[in-house]
Inverse folding.
């Protein structure tokens, strides 16, 4: 420190003053060798020019020592924090290594320095500091909570020192960071005094005229305000003492920043803010008498001054979810001025003041699950004068172990679950970016898209126009958002590929003048082992299948089936069929005995079944529908599903007709019967069915309610003519109103 060029005029005197304060504040926590070693390293660093001044021209040693004084005096941290502050710039300047710090000063000091260096590296990424995500990132970045507390103290010190700087732009940036980042952190940690100072100084630098206007008005009214408060509480004190209550009264004036926020929120003037101060009555009560004493004090105050019922807040009867208990009332005092009064006991005040979560939630600042209890314990540790160091050494940052915070090259910040990969990040940015992702540049190094992200990573996605999503990407992505986008992209790709494959096959067939037959193609697809038609066309599109080989197989199958049908139709026997020349007929009996199916060109050898949705029988007008497995479902033309099948899948509809009927075939049909619930109506219906030749009742279900009945009959019939006769006879039964085929 003998280097004259390192210290400007007056800085050496300031240094010695700070040094004496630090000696006094650190007490006996420093080891005999600490200051000697610290002095030697700082002298070496100044000689080797390893400690440059910052952009405000502040001397780094003096600045760090000022921060150390704040940490020791206003927060209560001692040796490890002081040494960490004073030595971290020496490590950054390569004067010392982390291992040397561990050896000479201990792991505690090395841990704090490691955290401070990581935080400084984080700032170099130029993040969006006003986001809640960035505040959380800082918390997760600091393995030791003391690092965050040092950061807050350092920013308070900086805000105090830059009052007269010529770097106006730098001062505005520092002031904005103080308001958006450090003040909320200080609030969360219960450092209310430092929080208010940060907010006030930020307002002073960003809204100078507003700040000085409010300050002057507060100063000009201070004497009158103090006099008013004294006259206001004097009769209250007398009444409370007369009632035998033990208490003390304290008041607080709102900070300049709080007053300005209220002026903006209420759209009023300084004179329109009536609660520039609040009076707190704190009772010394036994636990079982707390509520009684608070309400007694409330009664005394409201007997003297008129209360505003709209401003009563009763958190005695039902405490807040964070445990906050108090009575808040606003009364009309002398000179028609409204005064806010808070009534609580010592225990309640302790919770409100020391219970960290209680205070910042009380102010409307929401936090993450698990933060409350943890931060409260930190606050208590800081206020514990006996074991500060031992307690603070135990705090490791594990709240955000399930989250990582990652930057874009522009400094935007995103939060992901732990284990998230580069691919998750890419799809979070945009579906097109994710779909074309080939990897990334993380912290300047090229990595594959499978790379797992860690907090603080700066990620730049690398893409290629030839890249497309793959199915195994679903095993790489971890977030539901990315997986959903991958599935959607794969689905769209498969649809486009299938359409292209079908178009390619159609074009080839036309070029070769080969007839296209849907049923033959479906037979071929099934024969080749495909369960999904789309998969077949995708393989054609991606050239997994040779289209020329497919056309050869199709041509061969088309020829075989055409010849087979021709041969069958030439030598067909009519011995077992009861032909009906006046009707177009077709079918396959439910009993398993085959009728003859004619589809288009009387092709034979195609699997077909009767659709269960409409249960067609011999005599019904029918059509065929080619299913995905290559078989054909036979539907009635009046089937409820017919309109949708024809509109959506017209290319899969084939003509069908009954050509002949086996004399032993029967079909299962269902009838819906509705009528009056007369005696014996069920017996009459079943009697009719039993008397009919070649009719068999398989099942009957009848429900009766409010004098009506509704039933379903399952009957085996030969054909539509038998069915029509049965329906006519059932309608003649007394009480039956409707008979319809299901």
């Amino acid at each position: 420190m003998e280097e004259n060029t390192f210290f400007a005029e007056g800085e050496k005197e300031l240094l010695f003053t700070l040094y004496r304060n630090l000696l006094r504040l650190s007490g006996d926590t420093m080891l005999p060798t600490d200051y000697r070693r610290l002095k030697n390293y700082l002298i070496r660093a100044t000689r080797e020019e390893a400690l440059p001044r910052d952009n405000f021209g502040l001397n780094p040693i003096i600045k760090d020592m000022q921060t150390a004084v704040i940490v020791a005096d206003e927060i209560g941290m001692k040796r490890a924090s002081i040494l960490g502050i004073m030595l971290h710039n020496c490590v950054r300047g390569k004067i010392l290594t982390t291992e040397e710090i561990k050896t000479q000063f201990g792991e505690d000091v090395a841990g704090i320095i490691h955290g401070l260096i990581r935080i400084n590296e984080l700032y170099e990424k130029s993040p969006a500091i006003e986001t809640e995500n960035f505040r959380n990132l800082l918390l997760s970045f600091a393995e030791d909570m003391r690092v965050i507390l040092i950061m807050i103290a350092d920013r308070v010190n900086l805000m105090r020192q830059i009052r007269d700087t010529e770097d106006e732009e730098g001062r505005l940036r520092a002031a904005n960071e103080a308001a958006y980042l450090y003040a909320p952190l200080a609030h969360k940690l219960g450092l209310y005094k430092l929080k208010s100072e940060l907010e006030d100084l930020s307002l002073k630098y960003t809204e100078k005229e507003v700040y000085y206007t409010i300050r002057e008005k507060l100063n000009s009214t201070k004497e009158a305000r103090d006099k008013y408060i004294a006259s206001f509480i004097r009769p209250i004190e007398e009444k409370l003492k007369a009632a035998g209550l033990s208490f003390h009264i304290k008041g607080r004036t709102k900070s300049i920043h709080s007053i300005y926020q209220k002026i903006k929120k209420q759209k009023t003037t300084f004179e329109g803010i009536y609660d520039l101060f609040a009076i707190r009555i704190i009772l010394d009560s036994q636990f079982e008498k707390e509520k009684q004493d608070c309400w007694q004090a409330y009664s005394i105050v409201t007997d003297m001054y008129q209360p505003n019922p709209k401003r009563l807040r009763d958190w005695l009867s039902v405490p807040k979810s964070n445990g906050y208990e108090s009575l808040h009332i606003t009364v009309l005092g002398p000179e028609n001025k409204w005064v806010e009064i808070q009534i609580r006991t010592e225990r309640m005040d302790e919770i409100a003041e020391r219970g960290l979560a209680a205070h910042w939630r009380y102010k409307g600042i929401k936090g993450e699950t698990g933060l409350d209890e943890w931060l409260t314990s930190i606050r208590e540790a800081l206020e514990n004068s006996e074991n500060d160091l031992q307690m603070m050494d135990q705090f490791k940052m594990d709240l955000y172990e399930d989250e990582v915070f990652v930057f874009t090259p522009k400094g935007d910040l995103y939060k992901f679950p732990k284990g998230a990969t580069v691919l998750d990040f890419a799809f979070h940015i945009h579906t097109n970016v994710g779909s074309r992702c080939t990897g990334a540049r993380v912290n300047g190094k090229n990595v594959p898209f499978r790379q797992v992200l860690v907090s603080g990573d700066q990620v730049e996605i690398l893409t290629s126009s030839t890249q497309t999503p793959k199915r195994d990407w679903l095993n790489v992505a971890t977030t539901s958002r990315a997986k959903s986008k991958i599935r959607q992209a794969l689905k769209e790709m498969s649809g486009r590929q299938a359409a292209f494959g079908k178009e390619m096959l159609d074009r080839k067939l036309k070029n070769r003048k080969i007839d296209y037959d849907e049923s033959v193609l479906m037979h071929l697809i099934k024969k080749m082992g495909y369960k999904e038609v789309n998969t077949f066309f995708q393989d054609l599109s991606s050239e997994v299948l040779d289209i020329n080989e497919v056309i050869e197989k199709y041509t061969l199958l088309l020829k075989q089936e055409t010849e087979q049908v021709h041969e069958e139709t030439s030598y067909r026997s009519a011995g077992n069929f009861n032909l009906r020349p006046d009707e177009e007929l077709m079918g396959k009996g439910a009993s398993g005995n085959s009728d003859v199916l004619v589809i288009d060109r009387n092709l034979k050898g195609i699997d077909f079944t009767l659709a269960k949705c409409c249960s067609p029988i011999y005599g019904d007008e029918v059509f065929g529908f080619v299913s995905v497995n290559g078989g054909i479902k036979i539907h009635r033309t009046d089937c409820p599903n017919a309109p949708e099948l024809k509109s959506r899948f017209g290319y899969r509809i084939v003509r069908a007709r009954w050509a002949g009927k086996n004399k032993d075939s029967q079909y299962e049909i269902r009838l819906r019967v509705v009528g009056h619930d007369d005696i014996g109506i069920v017996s009459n219906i079943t009697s009719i069915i039993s008397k009919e030749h070649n009719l068999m009742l398989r099942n009957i279900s009848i429900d009766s309610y409010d004098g009506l009945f509704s039933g379903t009959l399952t009957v085996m019939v030969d054909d539509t003519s038998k069915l029509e006769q049965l329906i006519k006879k059932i309608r003649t039964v007394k009480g039956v109103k409707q008979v319809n085929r299901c």
About this structure: The radius of gyration is 44 Å. The CA atoms of residues 159 and 174 lie 7 Å apart.
